[in-house]
Design brief:
Elements: E1 3-7, H1 12-23, E2 27-32, H2 35-54, E3 72-76, H3 85-88, E4 95-100, H4 115-136, E5 140-149, H5 162-181, E6 186-192, H6 208-217, H7 226-238, E7 246-249
Parallel strand pairs: 1-2, 1-4, 2-3, 4-5, 5-6, 6-7
Helix pairs in contact: 1-2, 1-7, 4-5
Length: 254
C-alpha cells in the first residue's frame, strides 16, 4: 500500500489530493500547523473515504468486496519554523509520495511593505519545503516522487505579489537541483493559476474582478478548480517518467 505525506492538507487542494489517495487505498499523513486541526481533518478524511468506497457500484469492486480505503493520520508541522521540521517528522516511516502544498498568503505592496510577512512566506516555501525533503530523504522509497507547489504568479505578477512571484519562481530552481540530488527519486512542481473553488478565491465578492481578469487572459477562457489541479498532481506524482517538470495549470496564455 502506498504511503503518502501531504504537508498542508487541512484545506483546499491539499485536502482534496489526500482524499483522492485515500479512496485509492493509500495511507496518508496530513499535516497542518496545529495538532488538533490536523487530527480532526485526518479523521474526517478517513470517514469520507470509507463512505465513498462503500458507495462504489459492484462493477468497480474486486475479489470479495469493494477495495479498502486508506487511513489518514494527522501530524503537526510548521513549515515557517524549519528548525522544528525534523523532530516533527520523526514518527513518519517510509514515504512513497511526498507533496508540499503548505504556504502563507502574502499580498504585500511596497506601500507599507510588511517584512515579517514577506520573510515568513519565503522561509515557508523555500527553506521549509527543503527542510521537509532533507528530513525525509532517507525514508523516501526508491521509486518515490516529490511534488512542490509553486503558483502562476511566477509568470503573471500582480500588484502586491513581489515576494510571492519571487518565491514561486524559486521553486523552479528547487525542482532542478532536487531532482538531481535525489535521483532516482522524481521531483516535480505544479504552478496553478487561480483555483476558483479554493478557500482563498471562493465566494469572495472583492476578488470577483480579479478572477474575471485572470479568466479573460487565458486561451481557454476558463479557470481551474481543485479537481483539475488534483488530476495534474496525480500525473506528476504517479507517471514514472514525469521528472524535473515545472507544470503550469492555468488554461494557457498567449
Amino acid at each position: 500500500m502506498r504511503n503518502v505525506l501531504i504537508a498542508g492538507a487541512t484545506q483546499g487542494t491539499g485536502r482534496e489530493l489526500a482524499a483522492a489517495y485515500l479512496r485509492d487505498g493509500a495511507n496518508v499523513v496530513v499535516t497542518g500547523r496545529e495538532t488538533k486541526r490536523a487530527e480532526t481533518v485526518a479523521a474526517e478524511l478517513t470517514a469520507e473515504a470509507t463512505a465513498a468506497v462503500a458507495r462504489q457500484p459492484p462493477a468497480v469492486t474486486t475479489g470479495d468486496g469493494p477495495p479498502l480505503p486508506g487511513v489518514a493520520t494527522g501530524l503537526a508541522l510548521d513549515l515557517s519554523r524549519p528548525d522544528t521540521v525534523a523532530a516533527a517528522l520523526a514518527p513518519v516511516e517510509q514515504v512513497d509520495r511526498l507533496v508540499l502544498v503548505g504556504m502563507v498568503r502574502d499580498r504585500n505592496t511596497l506601500a507599507g511593505f510588511d517584512t515579517a510577512a514577506a520573510s515568513q512566506l519565503a522561509v515557508t516555501k523555500i527553506v521549509g519545503y527543503t527542510a521537509v525533503i532533507a528530513a525525509l530523504a532517507e525514508r523516501l522509497a526508491p521509486d518515490a516522487a516529490v511534488l512542490l507547489f509553486g503558483g502562476g504568479s511566477k509568470d503573471y505578477p500582480y500588484p502586491g505579489s513581489t515576494t510571492l512571484t519571487a518565491v514561486n519562481a524559486a521553486v523552479t530552481g528547487m525542482v532542478r537541483t532536487l531532482s538531481i540530488e535525489l535521483a532516482a527519486v522524481r521531483v516535480n512542481a505544479i504552478h496553478p493559476g487561480p483555483i476558483i473553488d479554493s478557500p482563498f478565491w471562493q465566494d469572495k465578492a472583492e476578488l470577483a474582478d480579479t478572477l474575471a481578469k485572470f479568466r479573460a487572459q487565458t486561451l481557454t477562457g476558463e479557470l481551474g478548480d481543485m479537481a483539475d489541479v488534483v488530476d495534474a498532481c496525480r500525473f506528476l506524482l504517479d507517471n514514472r517518467l514525469a521528472n524535473g517538470i515545472n507544470l503550469p495549470v492555468d488554461g494557457g496564455h498567449p
